[in-house]
Design a protein that fits this description.
Number of helices: 10
Strand order of the largest sheet: 1-2-3
Order of helices and strands: EHEHEHHEHEHEHEHEHH
Helix content: 40-55%
Radius of gyration: 17 Å
Strand content: 15-25%
Number of strands: 8
Shape: globular
Length: 252
């Protein structure tokens, strides 16, 4: 199994132990190393570097950081990405999150910085990992204008938009929240397995109430997709693993 989106760095001192446990069950984890509040990309990179080969890193700038409009920090992250462009599998997560944007200025900051990183990804010929919340349509339209390949992680938008995104060749992320989020379940029903990746967004979106999520729990997302589609677990696992390898160009 491959977890297409997680954040081992958020476990801090517990990260080595959890990585060791997950290696028993998973072929790989794509970790979206993202500039967000006190979680700086350079600190996360150094923490996770010893595990590269099992962990495949992306580098990005979270929209909830982008709302602050700190262009000095944007430039530092851009430089860090340039220094590691041959070691990452995508740029992200980047995007729009209007749930936490408190006013129009913050939304404009998000859009400006999102557009900047989309153009940057196009220049580097790298795919992007998209975080879109209460702004899925706008994020999709910006991706289309930029002409980049995009993974819409933890998708919870409309089924109509899910279909449109998939028709345009962008995979949809089905996370372990499928067991309690109706929108995730609806997207999983609407999209063919060939157009989806499975993920945990660990330590968030835990399928087990009261516990932090772990990348090993990606099995739950596969199980639920298999039930919805009337497919065998092994077939969903095989197809979603192939999708992740192709999209991120993973060398396993």
């Amino acid at each position: 199994m491959i977890d297409a989106h997680a954040h081992f760095e958020f476990y801090k001192k517990d990260a080595p132990k959890i990585i060791k446990e997950c290696r028993k069950d998973l072929a790989a984890v794509v970790d979206s190393i993202t500039e967000y509040r006190k979680t700086h990309v350079w600190k996360s990179w150094e923490m996770l570097r010893p595990y590269f080969g099992f962990i495949f890193p992306t580098l990005g700038y979270h929209p909830n950081e982008a709302r602050r409009g700190n262009w000095e920090k944007v430039k530092r992250v851009e430089e860090f990405i340039l220094n590691h462009r041959n070691e990452i599998v995508a740029i992200g997560e980047i995007g729009l999150d209007y749930h936490y944007a408190e006013n129009e200025r913050q939304r404009e900051n998000q859009k400006e910085i999102f557009r900047y990183f989309l153009e940057f990804a196009a220049e580097l010929d790298l795919p992007v990992v998209i975080h879109a919340r209460e702004a899925e349509r706008e994020a999709f339209e910006m991706v289309q204008r930029a002409g980049v390949r995009a993974y819409f992680h933890s998708f919870a938008g409309s089924v109509e938009l899910a279909g449109e995104i998939a028709e345009n060749g962008h995979p949809i992320g089905i996370n372990t929240g499928i067991v309690f989020i109706p929108e995730v379940m609806a997207a999983a029903k609407a999209v063919e397995v060939e157009n989806m990746l499975v993920e945990t967004d660990a330590p968030y979106m835990s399928p087990i109430k009261g516990e932090r999520n772990r990348p090993c729990n990606v099995r739950v997302a596969i199980e639920e997709v298999a039930k919805l589609k009337g497919m065998e677990f092994e077939e969903v696992e095989r197809v979603t693993e192939r999708n992740a390898v192709r999209f991120f160009n993973l060398r396993l």
